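To whoever picks this up:

The nightly regression suite flagged Zinc finger SWIM domain protein as changed. Nothing in the input moved, so I suspect the structure step. Input below, exactly as stored in the fixture:
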Amino acid sequence: MLCKEAAKGAVYKLNEEVYIRSVERRGLWLVALCYVRSQSRREECYQVVLKLKLGTRYFTGRCECPDFRYRGGPCKHIVRAKVALREYLKAATSLRRLL
Ligand SMILES: [Zn+2]
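Regenerated output under the current build:
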């Protein structure tokens, strides 16, 4: 997806590199739909789905980049999406405190 399209519906963005489209709770999991800018094709964003187990540090994710498809393991986009999600949750927590 083009990053400018991903940016439109974003609930949170980090440094124009990561866009979080949605975060929702599914049972014991927090599921975040993110788009992370490609290093080689700067207009393009890869879709990353991140799952975080609530109350633990355990997370899993998948990314549509060639690196992830080839290796099947966490790529740098997943790592970046996780950083952005952590920032988003921090911001959301301080918002809740204000309300
Ligand atoms: Zn990736």
